[in-house]
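Worked example (supplementary).
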Amino acid sequence: MIHFHQVSKRYPGGYEALNRLNFELQRGEMVFLTGHSGAGKSTVLKLITLLERASSGQIIVNGQNLSALGNRRIPYLRRSIGMVFQSHRLLNDHTVFDNVALPLVIAGLGAAEIGRRVRAALDKVGLLNKEKLYPLVLSGGEQQRVGIARAVVNKPPLLLADEPTGNLDPELSREIMKLFQQFNQFGVTVLIASHDVSLIESLSQRMLTLKNGRLTSDSKAHEESLRQQ
Amino acid sequence: MKNLFGSSRRRTGATLVARESLQRLSEQPEARPSAPAPRRRFGAFILLHLQVFVATLGQLSRTPIATLMTAAVIGIALALPAGLYAVLSPIQAHSTQWHDERQISVFLKPGISDAQAGALADRLRTLPGVSQVKLISRSQGLEEMRKQSGFAEALAMLDENPLPALLVVYPTPPPAGTSPAQAVTELLTTLRVLPEADAVQFDMQWLRRLEGILRVVERGVTLLAGLLALGVLLIVSNTLRLAILSRREEIEIIKLIGATDAFIRRPFLYLGLGYGLLGGVIAWALVMLALGLLRGPIEQLARLYSSDFQLIHLSLTGSLVLLSLGGALGLFGALLAVHRHLAAIEPM
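After joint prediction of all chains, the assembly is encoded as:
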């Protein structure tokens, strides 16, 4: 689903965010990307969604070579990726319903189809009764669930989350993570960047650890190497 | 500014439908094609634009004062050249009409009787280059003056007719290829040396001057119109720049979600079009009002010149041109702003 091969990202000024990074995510996997802030977690997510382009190396997402993808095709790439942000990035002057409907409106779906899908997504995150409210009257956890509903409403095969529990208490964080696990069980490939190591470890999923733009550990590779011994 | 992007809000049988579609959501995710979606049907395309247009109107009506103020600035800028054109074009039409009636007035000496004048007229008709000669006798002249100029009382007080007899000479139109001025000049010299002639007046002179003045004024109005059009462009562009910047966050988010540039651009282009059209309507109303106020005095003035001066007005075509000009300038201004500022907004 995601394939990084010798990917480097240098910013103007010489700062190297990623240094010849290699990793691979299979379709249907759920993987945590962890490391200290500045280790390159966000950069990985930005490269996958083409918010930024890699300086060198090859990235393949959902069978597409991103370096060969023209700028005009970027919107269509992003429609196949659900994105969840630490700061939610909701439209505060739109209702919950309208926020979740946005990806479908962009895709040009009809009103009836939009209504069905939005309610299905809101039901999934447990906010069906709040569709007429505005994001600012919701709690942080609820806002994040609206963000998740928006990310999954057009059924993308890939879900990315950048510190989705960054502003939430442990209890809410666990619920949010559980939600991601549920989507993963439905076959969605999930990649979550998070520095909350204690939470991640309790979930026993594959974990990639970055440090200074390099991959320092891959729990799956580690298990495989243990198995080989 | 809700629903700028026209999201739907219909809610019917929410829970029931949701249950059913939960099933769908739980299915394997679709392998979504990353290539651009297949071309939508034309009807759906029209519907989409209609939705955005209606949403734009809704947005403009939510801030009526600000909208009206922007539109009024555009309207005033458009009304000025439009009004000047409306006044100028009938004057110009009139001056070309006069142009065709090139005529030479030969005022005869006071002592010449009407009979002598008639004989002279007959003689002049035989001259080469003369197509027609009209005699206005002294009494006819007096009668005409009494009718038209409102000097009736003053004239009545005079003992005798002070007016000379007048011969109006119409030159034949010169054959193609020869200079009209030369033929007329020759005729003028012949007429000037007539012993009966007191003064020979050729009306072309002041018509030419009027034409010259009109040409200068017309050029001035064109320049003014160009400058004001540029002004409208900048006003719309700046208004749209502010609209874009105030929605920066929203634009970033929908870019993140996968909105195409066309999708993001569309509501702003309609906004520009809306401002332009509204400005056009205001300009039209202003011109109509101004012409209405000017109508009375102009008619009086025209009557003094005993002219069948066509009432100045903005024709249907003129109105449509004004309206579409407003719309086009609005749209173009929006394009400028969108081109400059939307590209600069990239999600982080």
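Two points are worth noting when inspecting this output. Chain B has two domains: 48-97+209-341, 103-202. Residues 1-38 of chain B have pLDDT under 50 and may be disordered.
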